[in-house]
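Objective 1.3, modelling of assemblies. Example input:
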Amino acid sequence: MAWIFVLPFLVVFVVFWAGPLLAGLGMSFTDMRSTDVRDPLAVDVVGVENYLRLFNDELMRKAALNTLIFVVTALPLTIALGLAAAVALNSGIARLPAAFFRLGYYTPYITSIIGIAVAWRFLLDPDAGPVNQFLGWIGIDGPAWLSDERTALPVIIVMTAWRSFGFDMVVLLAALQGIPKELYEAADIDGAGRWQRFRSVTVPMLKPALLFCTVYSSIGFAQFMEEPLVMTRGGPAGATTSASLAIYNQFGAGAYGYAGAAATVLFTVIVALAVFQFRIGRRS
Amino acid sequence: MKRRASTYVLLAAGLLVVVFPFLWTLLASFKPEGEIRRNPPTLLPAEWTTSNYSGLFERMNMGTAFLNSAVIAIALVVANLLFCSMVGYAFAKLRFRFRNTLFGLVMVQMMVPAIVVMVPQFVLIAKLGLVNTFLGIVLPFVVAPLGIFMMRQFIADIPDELIQAARVDGAREFRIFFSIVLPLCRPALATLGLITFMTSWNNFLWPAVVAQSEDMYTLPVALAIFSNAQATQYGLLIAGAVVVVAPILLLFLFLQRYFVQGIASTGLK
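Predicted structure (tokens):
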């Protein structure tokens, strides 16, 4: 009887997720190209050749490095902003203004990446965009943000943090409100200052929520691609090409076997990252 | 007291920075192209115009795209409300073999990056003859793992006695589900419905792959294609961005309670 209830998940999972996942894995050991789709069994098995090629591919290595830089900078930035907002909202602000601020901070998270990309491209336009016009007033000659190799990736990192911190804020705020007041009173009696209270009561009590935000965001960030796809198409000179975007481009070029190998590596890294973070989080 | 005042100032400054991109874009969308590019810029339009919007609707079939986005989002909301609560009920209240293994698979699906399965999924959709159809866009997402997770958490808190009592009275499992469990799930269903609507409305990659002709484009797909073709027509482009973003923002303004509750509860458990 119970199986009838789980049937919808089972069917969709097997047909649309597990099947394609295994098909991708299988593809990665062949020289399959887009032209082979009609007759997928006619492809040649090439063993681990695609994987070996991956590690010598300049563009793939650059994409992996960009993804690494993106995750290790955007992740702490997002969580720090989310935590700062949550702590500020929980510091005795009246209910109505608190709800108002929370609403405002959360809005970027729920909006379409395409809409946001279009808006940011306009704001950062070297001539027509207000950002460089404002900078011009104070005598700074702003860069061509998205077509400059030095600034393109940082812009996308900042944009991602701007867009995502509202989620962490909501999760952390709920966790903050769940901390028993007695713990703070006890800390006061022990003569703890504001910073000490934060370090020895707030942070430890927030650990499960922080762990959740870290794992959830790093899974999402490690596969970022829509931001560069619509803002820079991975450019200039591959400066914003992420791992996912590089795979997307390989698929676009028809190299299914090679793209499958890269996708398999990416998936493995993401799962390993999540498991690793949970291990670390549980232990300490 | 002084500290509280400075917190307010900080929060307000932060809010200004956060909503600036929205506000500036919204106001600029009512300026003529020449004014958009003017330096020094104007905050409020010196000359209000809706020509960006009318121009956009002339060049792109935005009405159709809007309708497509709405149909797909509503179909996914209905499917997810039904399926996620059915599956969530089984995981929360029914005993069966491999229950934990299956639930593990739900977690696995959550971690699969879209790009990893995109091409095999597309090949499958093509073999089923569903390229360029609503069904092709919708099918992989009719029962989202996050929704299953949410519903399981919520249904687990419903007292077992209620369900046991109905079983003793001889009610079939489906009747228990539809007449006892589902009505109790209303708050969770509201949250799930909103999150599903938002996710579907904003979804870009998969609809862009499946939809191949203009009459099947969703709003984000139409806007992305338009922005590749007209990278510098800012007036039209930002009007497009407003059309894509505004419906979700409005929905969120009115129903934010449900959004926030849902996010907070999935995050904490």
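Chain B touches chain A through 86 residues (CB under 8 Å).
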